[in-house]
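Worked example

This section walks through a single chain of length 440. The input is the sequence exactly as stored; nothing has been trimmed or padded.
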Amino acid sequence: MLREDDSAARKVEKLTRINQVLIDRIDRLEESRGSAWSMFQAAVALEQEVLTRTRQLEQAMADLSQRNRELAVARAAAEEANRSKTRFLRAASHDLLQPLSAARLFLSALTDTPMDPQQLELTDRLSGAFESVEQLMHAVLDISRLDSQRIEFNRQPVPLHDLFRKLAAEYAPLAEAKNLKLSFVQTDAVVESDPVFLRRIAQNLISNAIKYTSRGGVVVGVRRQRNTCWLCIYDTGAGIPAVDRNRIFEEFQRLGHDSGTPGMGLGLSIVRRACNKLGHPISLNSEAMRGTVFKVGLPPAESDHCPRPAVKELLTTTLRGRVALIIENDEAMRRGYELTLQDHLGMVARLCGSTAEAVATMGEEPPEVIIADYHLENGDTGVAAIEALRSRLNQPVPAIMVTAHRDPDIARTCAAMGVHLMEKPLRPTELGETLARVLG
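Given that input, the structure is written out below as tokens.
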């Protein structure tokens, strides 16, 4: 503060200090003002960045929503295409398997006639060709069924000795053609499974074992461990490398050393699908140049015992002279039934193509067994035919339903009616055995 008695030098000194203080204050004010301005500018820039990022996020979410809608549409289209494929295969299976089933019956009748060596060779080749076509068609239809979400299984007690007997008769010629020994270990085990798919599982495993074994043989048996019956298929083939043991269960996958073996690589894919759907664990052990064993775990049935049927005795004593009424709209199938039942099994076959014809054909002597195709003409079905005949006769005549459609509704209907269900293409030996059991 200046005083009047201060000297000029003193006043200059004080004014200099005051001036310096004012300058420092102004500098501080400018610095504060500059910092606030910078913060304001930074806040404005940040707000603009937030707005930009928000718009970008909104656009990304809109794009994602659009992609989700497109994906949902594509998925719905794929599911509809898969359903259409399944419906087509189910609808076409009857027309595809009908001529094959008739051809099998004709071929069976032909083999019972005297033939020269050249004719025998031709029939053997025809039988092999039919077998290949049948296996391929069954593979395609089985994959279609197993991929369907609506599949239902007909679980019931399955006597393994009966299954082994059928498989032995089916695959003995294939093993003999390769000079292999095919053995089935006798068993009285009865397991709980779907008989159709369990047989398909065993067929594919045994067929693969024979195909990929060049010397030695194949053994099929059952091992009991705790509460599981393990269906075991042993072979003396080249073995499966560890790196390939998962790959072989995929479609169209075959090992490098089997390029000359016929087949499309679908068998083990069907085995895996069926086992997964049925809840049957599957495993394999293999050793190079020593062979492979596949194991399928099966739950034992509540009653693990089933008497073994004397099939040959039943065929000879039960069927001869018995009257069978055939209801089949396909002329070739009717002729095939006639040759098989009359010439091969010694039965009396009456043939008709519809429910109305069946009722009219019945005559005074009623049939002892009915064999009806499920799909007839003009909406007529084997179910209607069997019901009409039973009502007319006022008794539950034994009956067999034959169909190419693997439909759980048909299986339930037949079970409720007490009608045995068989799938096309028919094998004459199985038809004879089924007739023997039904009439026995």
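What to look for: The chain is about 55% helix and 15% strand.
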